[in-house]
């Protein structure tokens, strides 16, 4: 996947024998959100009206770029995350020892497959941090619309990441481990949705009235 163009990736995504799936696609959507956030910050960096925020803007530029790269890597990680599970299921199971080893490897691989979407949940909150930071600067113009798009993208990523956590955890035989992972994912989704909802209300207020709410 390292050398794929956007067209090549979408072709691969649409093939029945292709490696990437919904989790990988969500990670690329998150990377687009990060890129949009960086664009908004980049537009503001040299404007006199935001001179007081120069340090914050510089930090946002660096953080958004780092997050974009992180999500690009997560897209690749997620695309291959289930392969070890399939390989584990193919291990021999003729003897009790082989069955035990196969079960251990399957469970280990399943936990590994759940890691990319769990990481997406965490890093999605980092994207939300940046969007909140930029809205507090009370910027003007059509770039606020791009900030809304970035916000909507993050909401989609949060929902998708939880789906991809639970599709894996359902295969875990250890109920305690399964419940712990699912609880963590659902909590991060719930908190993220609350933050996204507040951001949407705030940005929608500006888009409708061309001014930011006093409470921001």
Automatic annotation (TrEMBL):
Pfam families: FTCD_C. This is Formiminotetrahydrofolate cyclodeaminase. InterPro entries: Cyclodeamin/CycHdrlase (IPR007044), Formintransfe-cycloase-like_sf (IPR036178). Residues 5-185 form the Cyclodeaminase/cyclohydrolase domain. Coiled coil: none annotated. Transmembrane segments: none annotated. SUPFAM superfamilies: Methenyltetrahydrofolate cyclohydrolase-like. It comes from Alkalibacterium pelagium. GO terms for molecular function: catalytic activity.
């Amino acid at each position: 996947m390292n050398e794929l163009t956007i067209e090549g990736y979408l072709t691969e995504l649409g093939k029945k024998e292709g490696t990437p799936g919904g989790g990988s696609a969500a990670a690329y959507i998150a990377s687009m959100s990060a890129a949009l956030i960086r664009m908004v910050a980049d537009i503001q960096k040299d404007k006199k009206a935001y001179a007081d925020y120069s340090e914050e803007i510089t930090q946002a530029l660096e953080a958004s770029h780092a997050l974009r790269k992180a999500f690009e890597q997560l897209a690749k990680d997620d695309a291959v995350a289930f392969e070890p599970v399939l390989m584990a299921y193919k291990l021999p199971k003729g003897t009790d020892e082989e069955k035990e080893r196969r079960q251990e490897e399957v469970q280990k691989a399943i936990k590994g497959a759940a890691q990319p979407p769990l990481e997406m949940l965490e890093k999605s909150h980092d994207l939300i941090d940046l969007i909140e930071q930029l809205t507090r600067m009370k910027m003007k113009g059509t770039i606020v619309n791009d900030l809304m798009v970035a916000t909507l993208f993050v909401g989609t990523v949060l929902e998708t990441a939880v789906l991809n956590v639970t599709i894996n955890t359902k295969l875990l035989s250890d109920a305690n481990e399964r419940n712990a992972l699912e609880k963590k994912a659902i909590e991060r989704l719930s908190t993220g949705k609350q933050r996204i909802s507040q951001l949407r209300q705030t940005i929608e207020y500006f888009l409708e009235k061309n001014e930011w709410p006093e409470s921001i």
